[in-house]
Amino acid sequence: MSQGELTQDDFLGGQLVLSQPKDGYRAGVDPVFLASAVPARSGQSVLELGCGVGAASLCLGTRVSGLDLHGIERQESYAKLAQQNAEANDVPMAVHVGDLEQMPEALRAHSFDHVIMNPPYFDRSRGSMSPDETREQALGEETPLSVWIDQATRRLKPRGYLTLIQSAERLPDVLQALDDRLGSVIIQPLSPRTGRPAKLILMQARKGGRGAFRLAAPLILHEGDEHPADRDHYTKTVQSILRDGASLPLT
Description:
By secondary structure, the protein is an alpha/beta fold. The protein has helices at residues 30-36, 55-63, 76-88, 105-108, 133-139, 145-155, 171-177, 236-244, and strands at residues 6-11, 16-21, 45-49, 68-73, 93-97, 112-117, 122-123, 140-141, 156-167, 182-191, 200-207, 214-215, 219-220.
């Protein structure tokens, strides 16, 4: 992509600057929430499935230094941007072009402490396609969610963590895709305002985990009952995640 087809967007209050296409799928706050929920420590390895321009992995690598970051992305133009973004922000990351159902040998040969993902939200058997091809590939499910979760589980080390963000309406599909390889499941709903239904969920599970299933109290994103002006009105907790790179432990 030429520079004229890209924008430069600040994440984490400007700690991270990412090149993104002006048109098509663009990373917003969802990958930031995903990165905040990953309990990674320096020296651990992380694989992101469907990494796009690298937003989630690079937010995580900005918060936690010394990670061995890897990503796989099937759209070559996005994979190139992810690699460029990693280099521009001095966050080491190896980006692989490929389909998660046919994982490159370089990834199949390794297992990871963490696998993270922001899989497509929309089941196209229940809705219509986007006319923009890159946006459709990012948001419209072609590879079943169950395959995403199976491939993630295969790549995890024993006791490794799978963390994902997904539309709340897909929670039944997420839970149905889990099998006895994963346990200690935590669901964190993300609600736009107090008293409003959750629009998104974070899910974390551990390979070989035996802890009880937990449904956390909703994280409220915005203050007040409505949006009164052209500003975000994020709660203090959410501001610290989005602007300062604070963590969101799922407990």
